[in-house]
Amino acid sequence: MDINLFILSEDPVSRAGLEAIVDRDEEVSLIGRAADGPDGLRCLEKTELQPHVIILGEPPSKRTICENVQQIDSKYRHAKSRPKMIVVSRNDDDDVIVAALRVGVNGYLARIGSPEELLHSLQIVAKGGAAFSPTIAARFSRYFSTMRGLPELTGFSDLTSRELEILELLAGGLGNHQISRLLFLAEKTVRNYVSRIFAKLEVHDRATAVARARDAGFGGQTTVLVPQQA
């Protein structure tokens, strides 16, 4: 697939490195590049060809990622299709990755291992897929394998899959605020789930619920991908 690519990065070294990689692939056409910020977004707006993929290179903060994505979405809201976006950054903190995914980024690469990794990721994202560095993908894999392994034991059969998921996190020591950020739920919603779990387990406090859950095998592999407070 031929890809129209735009690079948005205020780091000149990062931008030059990305350009050097994409220049070696005949299927990728670099239609523009610019620094982050209002000037860069104006440069994107003046680009005659619509990019298939936009690289956000070494964004200085998760706030920058969110603002850029929102402004790009706004620019192309009436277009047939929205450009795909992929972050290339050495910052692989969980809270930054989760913030990027929440606003609609299609991929996140940290510490690119080879030019081929970037070029292959561009193809995946351009076709509507999601691309992540191996270390980031491994963290997601651990999270979802934990969720798949939730015990379904006698005495817990009345719990829904979401309630089992929350009980697993409670047993792992997470508080309501951490659970709400991890599962993208309002904290009030988490409190309501916890209350229903207490009622179904016929317990009156968190400590008793956690003790019962741990006795049944919950809480053994709590996820590591918990967003931190901004």
Looking at this protein, list some descriptive labels.
alpha/beta; single chain; six-stranded parallel sheet; 230 residues; disordered C terminus; 6 strands; elongated
Task: Characterize the structure shown.
The structure is a single chain. Helices cover 49% and strands 12% of the residues. The chain has ten helices and six strands. The longest helix has 15 residues, at 134-148. It is elongated. Mean pLDDT is 86; it is low at 221-230.
Topology:
Elements: E1 3-8, H1 12-22, E2 28-34, H2 38-45, E3 53-57, H3 62-75, E4 84-88, H4 94-102, E5 107-109, H5 115-126, E6 131-132, H6 134-148, H7 161-171, H8 176-183, H9 187-201, H10 206-215
Helix pairs in contact: 7-9, 7-10, 8-9
Mean pLDDT: 86
User: What separation lies between the terminal Cα atoms?
Assistant: 38 Å
Report low-confidence residues grouped into runs of 5 or more: 221-230
Estimate the global geometry from the Cα principal axes. Answer: elongated
- According to DSSP, the number of beta strands is 6
Percentage of residues in strands: 5-15%
Radius of gyration: 21 Å
Strand order of the largest sheet: 2-1-3-4-5-6
The secondary structure category is alpha/beta
| Run of helices and strands | EHEHEHEHEHEHHHHH
Sheet with most strands: 6 strands, parallel
State the helix count.
10
Percent helix? 40-55%
